[in-house]
Amino acid sequence: MRALVFHGNLQYAEIPKSEIPKVIEKAYTPTIGTLIKEEIPFGLNITGYTLKLLPKEIIDLVKEGIANNLIEIIGTSYTHAILPLLPLNRVEAQVQGDREVKEELFEVSPKGFWLPELAYDPIIPAILKDNGYEYLFADGEAMLFSAHLNSAIKPIKPLYPHLIKAQREKRFRYINYLLGLRELRKAIKLVFEGKVTLKAVKNIEAVPVWVSVNTAVMLGIGRLPLMNPKKVASWIEDKDNILLYGTDIEFIGYRDIAGYRMSVEGLLEVIEELNSELCLPSELKHSGRELYLRTSSWAPDKSLRIWTEDEGNARLNMLSYNMRGELAFLAENSDARGWEPLPERRLDAFRAIYNDWRGENGEP
Fold first, then answer.
1. Would you say residue 190 has pLDDT above 70?
2. Residue 246 in contact with residue 202, Cβ under 8 Å?
3. CATH class of 2-158+185-302
4. Quick one: how far is CA 84 from the chain centroid?
5. For 30-41, how does the pLDDT look when each residue is reduced to its tens digit (9 = 90+)?
6. pTM of the entire structure?
7. CA distances from 208 to 9, 147, 305 (A)
8. Can you tell me the distance from the alpha carbon of 337 to that of 250, in angstroms, rounded to the nearest whole number?
């Protein structure tokens, strides 16, 4: 048994707001529609804020999938906030805001919770359990590195540094890509199967999200050099009871990877090559493992630095810390602080902070 999860967020840091209709047309509609038509079960994790932006046709598609037991609705934070960076009352507000939208819109109460950017700390499971959640999704690689808790003493090195270099640097790109593929395959060998129990303020079950598996599937779907659906299936065929895909729906049909476009048809090819039954994420089996997960994210070094160290990010985090009410959600949106955020996304957060300070209620 293997599972799929698609994460949707139309506040995406690197997507202009003017492109939202195109994202819906190229990614959301064909991906959700095709999977339902092919009777492929999957988890759907769309932020509560994004759900309010989607047209009725998409909402009706999702309702159809839920009714046919093909879609498991998964909770997340309302505006994709990085939860370990928020005061606890705002963590709960984000959790509750998202849950309320989904319960009202779909008449279901999600049991699984997707941590935005898989950013985690040991208090979050307690807040989730207090609000009706039974399990969450967490970074598998961070689980491997959690035996040592102090990254200032022992920093975490990425498992596939050359693949990261190939993505970010033009010089020696192809050589780095080749070396990165070898590193990626080695990282897949570290993957363990099944859910785990996280030791936390309140223990909770977790589905590991393996970036290595996810990346390999994306490279295969996109048919990047030396990769295709058949090859990636051969890399992961001995890994059962895992997530095959667990990231942005926008990568399927809309966003390129180094000029290569993924399609839902390519994903179906991987599934066919694996010749494996798919299940809803909640149906994945437990591995029997119990472990402590350090404060972490699914960034290459498993830290929160991407969302804290930049001066603009630090300023946003400081200014939004004591906010309350609806505008706080917009100020907390992680994609104002994203990997490579557009100015308009960052300005949305700064405007929300200013409007809150001035006592104004208008959205950016």
1. yes
2. no
3. alpha beta
4. 15
5. 999 999 999 999
6. 0.94
7. 21, 16, 21
8. 18
